[in-house]
TrEMBL record:
SUPFAM superfamilies: Ankyrin repeat. The lineage of its organism: Eukaryota, Amoebozoa, Evosea, Eumycetozoa, Dictyostelia. This is Ankyrin repeat-containing protein. It holds the Pfam family Ank_4. It comes from the Eukaryota. Gene3D superfamilies: Ankyrin repeat-containing domain.
């Protein structure tokens, strides 16, 4: 397999081209809205020691230590800096770290616990941690005077839980109506989760007395990003609530065409070129087409570069035929990094940007893995 990649590059690419100065941003990181180059050369000097060892060949010409056939010595104690030397290896390691953290987070949130075990816990955890239904928790709620300081916090946390329901929320308020004060960050998180009924109750009863206009604006962005159109419509109808260009940008990034269409038709904030770039990154061709036909912000070379990185050949082809921004050498480099041979083939025969030496380096490192 590695021979296929290396022969492919050796035959069609001029690998002497330098990196483009236009590549100021490379990887789309939705949570921080940062675009940066994660593949800069690492010039760390590494010193290793090796040991000699013998190689024996039996009568069948088989070698007892095939590692001796490698064209380079292996270190006796490979250090972390040696492992991180390879750009592809480094990216994979940190990618797996992120995946493991996400899996642990999911495990923490989704652990299966029996009811007989839950009733042994702090009774308020039935609300904030497990979001148990009212018919269950009503039998185990403590007396209010013993947990007065915790009640408001627990109900706030319940509202943010993905399993929260309006029925249980209202029962909790009946249980302790005078002790609940909604926190501003909780309101925007309810918008993120898409709990429309709870969100509407909060703004009808606590805005603007206890919920700030800033929290409403953040809620508009969160609801747009997660495609909760009913909450977006509710906020849009409220006087004084400010949206921003981020709303349409993030709705486009995550493929929420109905939200993008609503914001275009009912709001005046518009979007930025990030909307089309990020839609291309996410593989959302319908949104790329909609923005092209209805908006004037356009895109940048990152649209094609990111489409190539993520293997979205249909978007590459459409952008090539309908847009003029083009791509950079990053497109082919990133396609090689991710192993998209069909994308490499398409770029070679349809685009003229070529690649840098990173393309062959990353392809080779990928095959070594």
């Amino acid at each position: 397999m590695i021979d296929t990649y290396l022969q492919y590059y050796s035959s069609i690419f001029d690998s002497s081209s330098s990196n483009s100065n236009r590549d100021k941003k490379m990887a789309f990181q939705p949570l921080k809205k940062i675009k940066s180059n994660h593949h800069d050369d690492d010039n760390t000097i590494i010193t290793t020691t090796t040991t000699s060892t013998s190689m024996t060949v039996d009568s069948n010409n088989s070698i007892d230590n095939p590692l001796l056939l490698l064209p380079f010595p292996l270190p006796t104690r490979p250090s972390l800096s040696i492992v991180l030397k390879g750009k592809y290896i480094r990216e994979k390691i940190f990618g797996y770290v992120k995946e493991i953290n996400e899996m642990n987070k999911i495990d923490d949130e989704c652990q299966s616990t029996k009811g007989k075990d839950i009733i042994k816990l702090d009774h308020l955890k039935m609300i904030s941690t497990f979001a148990m239904p009212w018919n269950f928790i009503k039998h185990y709620l403590p007396k209010k005077d013993s947990v007065m300081e915790s009640i408001s916090k627990v109900i706030n946390r319940y509202c943010c839980h993905r399993n929260a329901t309006m029925e249980t929320f209202l029962h909790l308020l009946d249980w302790s109506p005078e002790d609940f004060t909604p926190q501003n960050e909780v309101v925007s998180e309810v918008a993120t989760q898409g709990h429309t009924e709870i969100f509407e109750y909060l703004i009808n009863n606590y805005y603007p007395r206890q919920i700030t206009i800033r929290s409403m604006s953040q809620s508009a962005r969160n609801a747009s990003e997660n495609g909760h159109l009913l909450i977006v419509q509710l906020l849009s109808a409220m006087e004084g609530v400010r949206f921003s260009k981020d709303a349409m940008d993030w709705a486009a990034a995550y493929g929420h065409l109905n939200t993008v269409r609503y914001l275009h038709e009912n709001r005046t904030e518009g979007c930025t070129y990030d909307a089309m770039d990020w839609a291309a990154w996410g593989g959302h061709l319908d949104i790329v087409k909609y923005l092209h036909e209805n908006r004037s912000e356009g895109a940048t070379t990152y649209a094609m570069n990111w489409a190539a990185k993520n293997g979205h050949l249909d978007i590459l082809d459409w952008l090539h035929e309908n847009r003029s921004e083009g791509a950079t050498t990053r497109a082919m480099d990133l396609a090689a990094l991710k192993g998209h041979l069909n994308v490499l083939d398409w770029l070679h025969f349809n685009r003229s940007e070529g690649s840098t030496t990173n393309a062959m380096d990353w392809a080779a490192e990928r095959m070594v893995i």
